[in-house]
Amino acid sequence: MPEYQIKFDKTFAYEVESIFKQNNARYGYPRIQIVLENKGIKVSCSKVYRYMKLLNLYSNLRIKKFIKKPKENKKHESKI
């Protein structure tokens, strides 16, 4: 933990937590920062990241569905 004190803003923390819970814990700090900017609150990604870390908010990673493509049969033609 760093030696300096982090100023804790309760209203900003409530705003971050409410956006996080509205989106079913899918949004990480970059998306939350974009939502805050759209609301008119200008903050850096690092500030949002710090508040999420202090509030123990971690986004749920969705598992990407991977469809295995069948391999093509390549016929090699020998060149003479």
Question: Can you lay out the helices and strands and say which pair or pack?
Answer:
Layout: H1 10-22, H2 29-39, H3 45-54
Protein model, in words:
By secondary structure, the protein is mainly alpha-helical. The protein has a domain at 10-54. Helix content is 42%, strand content 0%. The chain has 3 helices and no strands. Helix 2 (29-39) crosses helix 3 (45-54). The longest helix is centred in the N-terminal third of the chain and has 13 residues, at 10-22. The chain is elongated.
Largest sheet: none
Helical fraction equals 40-55%
What is the averaged pLDDT score? 83
**Alpha plus pi helix count:** 3
Structural class: mainly alpha
Residues in β-strands, percent: under 5%
Termini, distance in Å? 70 Å
Quaternary organisation of the protein chains: single chain
| Gyration radius from CA atoms, angstroms | 22 Å
Shape: elongated
**Tally of DSSP β-strands:** 0
Short key terms for the protein model shown above:
single chain, 80 residues, mainly alpha, 3 helices, elongated
Give a nutshell description of this structure.
This protein has 80 residues and is mainly α.
